[in-house]
Amino acid sequence: MFFSKCSQMSPRSAKRCVLLIWIMSVIVSLPHGLFHNTYEFPDDDGKTIVQCLPVHPDAGWWKTYNVYLVIIQYFVPMVILDTAYTMIAVKIWTLSKARIEMDETKMANQKVSFDIKLV
Q: In this protein, which residues make up the domain named G-protein coupled receptors family 1 profile (predicted)?
């Protein structure tokens, strides 16, 4: 197996991790809620269109925040998934290679015992 039983997370630790993830998610997404405002625009038909647009005090800060979000929401999960899939692929490759070597050894032993019986 990949991981031993003793390395598994307890239900209490799992709950703490999930809670931490939710807290971090709320904190990271707060600027979107705090720095957006709704605006009403008249339409050609006389209707009103409501749009939610960003209102930020500093454009540099907003660009930095968006770069941070791209890193946190795209690159970090991608690296985690790539690492996990690589670990799985290496484990499968190692196990299949060991099985092929075991099968070859077994076949060689059977051939030797067959040759001994013929003599």
A: 1-119
Q: d(Cα 28, Cα 65) in Å, to the nearest integer?
A: 9
Whole-prediction pTM? 0.53
At residue 19, does pLDDT exceed 60?
Answer: yes
Is residue 6 assigned to a domain?
Answer: no
Residue range(s) defining the domain that contains residue 104: 75-119
DSSP assignment of 38-78, as one string? EEEEE-TTS-EEEEEEE--S-HHHHHHHHHHHHIIIIIHHH
Residue 29 lies in a domain: yes
Does 33 fall in a domain?
yes
The residues with which 39 forms a beta bridge, in sequence order, are: 51
Residue 22 lies in a domain: yes
Q: With bands split at pLDDT 50, 70 and 90, how would you rate the model's confidence at 58?
A: confident
